[in-house]
Design brief:
Elements lengths: L2 H30 L14 H32 L4 H10 L5 H34 L7 H32 L4 H24 L6 E3 L3 H13 L7 E4 L10 E4 L6 E5 H6 L2 H16 L2 H23 L3 H5 L8 H16 L3 H22 L2 H14 L8 H7 L5 H10 L2
Parallel strand pairs: 2-4
Antiparallel strand pairs: 1-2, 3-4
Length: 413
């Protein structure tokens, strides 16, 4: 057992214990507060709704704990358990070129992972979401979505993977800069193609028909110099009772999308306040900042991978007997989340800061009470807990806890 194996196991153990402990804190927090609605919400959310959110949060968190153990077990089997090395040797026995052997190994891992994920997703949809009245999907729709997702992964992923492995094998010591350029181009392509070609494969998008609401939204967009390709309503209720709103696309190809469940739950003024929040993200250039961060992280990651590819201890320490470019890439993809986990509080904290900035922008566009009302309705309809554990929230949550966010909006009134 080399030193890297010991480091990997130590960091994996630390991360696993930390995540389990934080999850248990979350479970304990929502359980301890489930019998009393926080005072700030007592006139808006009933005790029964508050208790439903507590039980729902507890069920999801407990499932997450067991999934964590499953993921850790699978990671150890793939690496130190020798399954990845065995898969590699099986494909090598066919004596294909290194490029196509690498493609075959990585696609095999993708397919096996998809088969493992399928029952987990099925349980989440038809047991947990069903239990709390959120699931609207049928089994036919569920499996059709799974096949579409797998098909898209193959159609998009195989050419991209082949190109990346070819660059890694052919471009010498600076291959990682070439791959980085390809990754940036692919990301830009997906920002354009996702709303136009991919999303419509799964959902229907119809232009917003509510004339009064559309007028309010268009006036808001005009006031802020914001252009989009249109305002659409998505049939989110076809699969789930959860509501949401979002922007998709980039540059001149942005679309505004509302779940039909959200349109039904909120008043036009509240919908406008939610949209003002989303525009706030663009006004503060949060999207550009996140893209820039992603570009820098991916560049640093590829540079690190280029160095690790030449280190025998990297392969040996993770149970691989024959070094190769594709095995280096696979191992890096498998184990980098183990080490990057500890960046989660920093990234979550930055995201929460962006949410506060977007809230402040929305408050300046309309009465902040409207956004507060909309958020409370969304918390209620989505059964979001009002009493998360502070440490759990600080580590994971991309949005501020409900009491903190609503109180901050109250200060802006």
């Amino acid at each position: 057992m080399n030193g890297f194996t010991l480091l990997f196991l130590a960091v994996l153990l630390l991360g696993t214990v930390l995540q389990w402990w934080l999850a248990q804190r979350q479970i304990n927090a929502v359980t301890a507060h489930q019998h009393h609605v926080p005072e700030a919400f007592s006139d808006k959310i009933s005790l029964a709704e508050h208790q439903k959110a507590a039980v729902y949060t507890r069920a999801k968190t407990q499932m997450g704990q067991w999934l964590l153990l499953l993921e850790v077990g699978l990671l150890l089997l793939w690496t130190l358990g020798g399954l990845l090395d065995g898969l590699d040797q099986a494909w090598r026995s066919l004596a294909w070129s290194p490029l196509w052997t690498g493609v075959a190994v990585m696609l095999s891992l993708l397919l096996i992972g998809s088969l493992i994920d399928l029952p987990v997703a099925y349980y989440r949809t038809f047991v947990i979401e069903n239990r709390f009245g959120f699931n609207r999907s049928t089994r036919t729709l569920f499996f059709t979505d799974a096949l579409k997702s797998l098909g898209l992964s193959l159609v998009i992923g195989v050419p991209l993977l082949t190109l990346v492995l070819w660059l890694m094998n052919s471009m010498g010591a600076w291959w990682w800069l070439w791959v980085w350029g390809v990754w940036l181009g692919f990301t830009g392509l997906m920002l354009w193609a996702f709303p136009t070609f991919i999303e419509p494969l799964f959902n229907s998008f119809t232009p917003l028909a509510h004339e009064a609401l559309r007028t309010r939204i268009e006036q808001l967009l005009t006031r802020n110099g914001f252009s989009s390709e249109g305002i659409f309503v998505m049939d989110g209720s076809r699969r789930s009772g959860h509501g949401n709103a979002y922007f998709t696309g980039f540059g001149k190809h942005k679309r505004i999308v509302f779940y039909d469940t959200l349109i039904n739950d909120l008043s036009p003024a509240e919908v406008e306040a939610v949209l003002a929040h989303e525009i706030g993200h663009f006004k503060h250039k949060h999207v550009q900042k996140r893209l820039l961060s992603m570009m820098l992280f991916s560049l640093a990651g590829l540079a690190l991978l280029a160095w690790l590819m030449g280190q025998a201890w990297f392969y040996q320490g993770l149970g691989v007997s024959q070094p190769s470019t594709y095995m280096a890439l696979l191992l890096f993809m498998l184990v980098s989340p183990v080490f990057s986990l500890f960046l989660s509080p920093l990234l979550a904290g930055l995201s929460r800061r962006h949410e506060f900035e977007a809230d402040a922008f929305a408050a300046a566009q309309s009465n902040p009470q409207l956004l507060s009302q909309a958020l409370v309705k969304m918390y209620k309809e989505n059964a979001a807990t009002l009493t998360p554990d502070p440490l759990y929230s600080a580590f994971y949550d991309s949005h501020p806890p409900a009491p903190v966010r609503v109180a901050q909006l109250g200060n802006l009134t």
